[in-house]
Design brief:
homodimer; alpha/beta; Rossmann fold; six-stranded parallel beta sheet; CblAdoTrfase_CobA (chains A, B); cobalamin biosynthesis (chains A, B); EC 2.5.1.17 (chains A, B); ATP-binding (chains A, B)
Chain lengths: 201, 201
């Protein structure tokens, strides 16, 4: 009998919870393209974007990815997605600032990649655009935030955009719909583990 | 001339930075399977796991996914991954506690899904195992943490495991290699936007 009582109380509590949650879901009825930002120092900013890419492809969407810093083309994500008929994949970086050691080159590279992005931001056939490691172009002043914001805000109404990278500037966060800060609670790298293929790249 | 000076200083600074970073990379030389946890209240816990899944598949790995809470099979991620020859995909949940409203059923469901997980945790042919929304089985006491930890720690040496879900218990975090806390900075849902296909599911 005690168990039956316990189950009945559980059932009543969950029914009340469900009513609240259902009301919240019903209230969220707007449909539009979203601007998502994945920032912070933890692992998962780019991989969360690539997970959403898989999700969007599963729904039949057309997608594009521009990698702003990365220059290597041997990553697992590229090998996996690049031949998909509904993905356009662009590796447009030259590596990190400490790899290039050339500020003028970094700026020129960022501008070229941004021109590619603008093409997609004006194309309503693109349902999801991922600007991977894009925040660094703003952080280092390679691209002007005001111009970038204007272009993002005037994109097609149903187009989703995901921007990843550390230290997203406040001006970008202000215009975003969903912002996740990936906090580094712990990272295997700091315990002496190599960047493992399949996990880190 | 000023520009050339500036470039030279930039180059010298970046060369020093690169030396430090290269030394750190050289010091991280251990190779082994990792236990990753994606927790917190923000968006990106499951999608980061699915992004790593794409990455691992791109490197030719064999992978398995068990969804512990989700009962729906119409998600974009499942549509995208389920037919891949190197992915085993299991939707083993009954929905959230407020959907089932039945504690005994929730416990039985969690136990069945865990048995499936144990099969993979003892199989060295599985390179990456994702236990999606698994933390809830511990949070609600459906599975004993000690038994779960023991099984995770005795898995094959090179097997990677990713656990997702809010409120990962301290005992699980202690045995993990990489832990990211996805903090909710902002979510479109709270601004009245519906859960958009391709982004949220």
């Amino acid at each position: 009998m005690q168990d039956a009582d316990r189950e009945a109380r559980h059932q009543a509590r969950m029914a009340r919870k469900k009513a609240i949650i259902d009301a919240h879901i019903a209230a969220a009825d707007e449909e539009r393209g979203l601007l998502l930002i994945n920032t912070g120092n933890g692992k998962g900013k780019s991989s969360a974007a690539f997970g959403v890419l898989a999700r969007a492809l599963g729904h039949g969407m057309n997608c594009a990815v521009i990698q702003f810093i990365k220059s290597r083309s041997d990553t697992g994500e590229e090998a996996f997605f690049r031949d998909h008929p509904r993905v356009k994949w662009h590796v447009m970086g030259d590596g990190f600032t400490w790899d290039t050691q050339n500020d003028a080159q970094d700026r020129a590279t960022a501008r070229t990649a941004w021109e590619q992005a603008v093409g997609y931001l004006r194309d309503p056939a693109i349902d999801l655009l991922i600007l991977d490691e894009f925040t660094y172009t703003l952080k280092y002043g390679w691209l002007p935030l005001e111009k970038v914001s204007r272009e993002l805000m005037s994109r097609p109404e149903m187009q989703h955009v995901i921007i990843t990278g550390r230290a997203a500037p406040e001006g970008l966060i202000e215009i975003a719909d969903t912002v996740t800060t990936m906090d580094l609670t712990r990272h295997a790298y700091h315990a002496g583990v190599k960047a493992m293929p399949g996990i880190e790249w």
